[in-house]
């Protein structure tokens, strides 16, 4: 693990810290206040590196969550994904999940200070990545820690004449330390719930989700949404602690994940719904017009 050196950011105005490991896919492994951890550690960063078992805050790129098959269309052609090759991982049903950047070592840190970190990934210069997603571009992640909030900005800048589909997301595993899961409260905004089949793939059916504040209790969640308003706020709280996730820009989709077997809730910002790369319901970054998305996580 020596080559996977962590970088810890420190909030200049509080005790909050955030730790990233650039060589392990620019994953955030810790978000803590006064030494108390707010990110679900699950099996830890070593399992993420060796077997892709997610934890902390991983990026899901170039698609978030599942695709309904191992092929997707683009400009009259078809891209074929091969499970186990080029970073393609599959779920229990054999369909691709969470993109190809799990623990990817090719990020280059371009800026670093006590509370800010910037890293680039040159997609166009990497044949392995182009095989799965044939759109040359530079991907930039900028993370800033200030005022008890971690802000993550992601910029997609096309580096050829081809526009780049925006179907990515993040998977923040959140927890309320020192408080039993049954006592957590989850507050969500109004949005649209996407009905799914037994594989977790949207069926096309929808229903309104009124949002509001409710106890988590023993509720299990694995729900996808679209029509998330810019600036929407999600809150996970318990006792005198809380975590606020704000979808600041570019994230019109979301996934809520709360498994029965883990004391955590994932509040996932997504630029497009699950399976968008196959269905074409996504925005694109045009040549010469980089697209930036932003979300933030504030701990209290």
TrEMBL record:
One of its GO terms (molecular function) is isomerase activity. Gene3D superfamilies: 2.70.98.10. InterPro entries: Aldose_1/G6P_1-epimerase, Gal_mutarotase_sf_dom, GH-type_carb-bd. Pfam families: Aldose_epim (PF01263). It comes from the Bacteria. One of its GO terms (biological process) is carbohydrate metabolic process. This is Aldose 1-epimerase. The lineage of its organism: Bacteria, Bacillati, Actinomycetota, Actinomycetes, Mycobacteriales.
């Amino acid at each position: 693990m020596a080559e996977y050196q962590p970088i810890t950011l420190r909030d200049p105005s509080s005790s909050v810290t955030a730790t990233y490991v650039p060589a392990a896919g620019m994953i955030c492994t810790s978000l803590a206040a006064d030494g108390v951890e707010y990110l679900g550690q699950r099996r830890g960063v070593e399992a993420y590196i060796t077997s892709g078992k997610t934890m902390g805050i991983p990026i899901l790129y170039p698609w978030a969550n599942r695709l309904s098959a191992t092929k997707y269309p683009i400009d009259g052609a078809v891209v074929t994904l091969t499970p186990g090759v080029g970073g393609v991982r599959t779920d229990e049903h054999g369909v691709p999940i969470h993109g190809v950047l799990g623990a990817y070592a090719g990020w280059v840190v371009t800026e670093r200070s006590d509370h800010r970190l910037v890293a680039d990934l040159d997609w166009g210069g990497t044949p392995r990545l182009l095989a799965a997603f044939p759109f040359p571009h530079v991907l930039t992640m900028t993370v800033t820690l200030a005022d008890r909030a971690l802000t993550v900005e992601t910029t997609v800048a096309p580096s050829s004449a081809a526009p780049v589909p925006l179907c990515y997301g993040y998977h923040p595993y959140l927890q309320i330390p020192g408080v039993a899961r049954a006592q957590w409260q989850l507050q969500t905004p109004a949005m649209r719930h996407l009905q799914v089949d037994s594989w977790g793939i949207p069926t096309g059916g929808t229903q309104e989700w009124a949002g509001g504040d409710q106890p988590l209790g023993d509720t299990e969640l694995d729900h996808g949404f679209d029509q998330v308003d810019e600036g929407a706020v999600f809150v996970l709280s318990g006792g005198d602690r809380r975590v606020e996730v704000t979808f600041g820009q570019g994230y019109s989709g979301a996934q809520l994940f709360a498994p029965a077997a883990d004391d955590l809730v994932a509040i996932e910002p997504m630029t497009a719904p699950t399976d968008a790369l196959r269905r074409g319901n996504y925005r694109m970054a045009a040549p010469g017009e980089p697209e930036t998305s932003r979300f933030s996580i504030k701990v209290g």
